Amino acid sequence: MKKEELTALGITDEQADRVLSIHTAELTAETEKTAAAQKELEASKATVKEITGKLKAYDGVDVEKLKSDVSAWEKKYSEDMAAARLDNAVELALTKAGAKDVALTKHLIDRSIIKEDGGKLIGLEEQLNKIKTDKAWLFGEEKTPAQQLPLVNTAGNHNSGSAPVAAPTTLAGALKEKYSN
After folding, report:
1. Would you report the helix, strand and coil content of the chain in percent, each value rounded to 5?
2. Closest CA to 7 of 15, 26, 27, 21
3. Which end of the chain is less enclosed by CB atoms within 10 A, N or C?
């Protein structure tokens, strides 16, 4: 709209200037709103494009299959951990029972009938007793910790079976003992 058009309609110059200033203010406000909406639209388009690109990476992925796979992995992990705990508990029980060869003795045990109940192995004791009677050679005498350690003579002459001799206290005494034997 121009000032000439307004004056042609019979409006004074002063009134035409006021109408144009109001019209310009309203037009500027609407232009700013349109520009802001345009920027928002462009940002939204960019976001949609980015998300679409990311989604294409997962195109063809079966979410339900992934869930079932994770469930299967968790189940297998739980079973493997339970088997490892049972295996370790059997090895410990065999060691405590005095098995000479734990690996060999372990193969004679039927793990399918052994159950774990609060840290106790049910069904193992009967099998151990049977193996101890049938194959006694697999088991040694149960030893106390003192019996398991060899005796070491830390003083005296180590070459003879005699009682320990007092160690020399001087260098001369040590040399004399060394070269006298």
Report:
1. 65, 5, 30
2. 15
3. C
Residue 118 Ramachandran class (φ > 0 left, ψ -120 to 50 alpha, else beta): left
111 Cβ contact partners less than 8 Å away, ≥ 6 residues apart: 86, 87, 90
Closest CA to 116 of 91, 90, 149: 90
Q: How far apart are CA 64 and CA 18, in angstroms?
A: 68
Q: In sequence order, what are the residues at sequence separation of 6 or more whose Cβ sits closer than 8 angstroms to the Cβ of residue 100? A: 137, 138, 139, 140
Q: Compute CA distances 154 → 45, 142, 164, whole Å.
A: 87, 27, 8
pTM of model > 0.85:
no
Confidence grade of residue 71 (pLDDT, cut at 50, 70, 90): very high
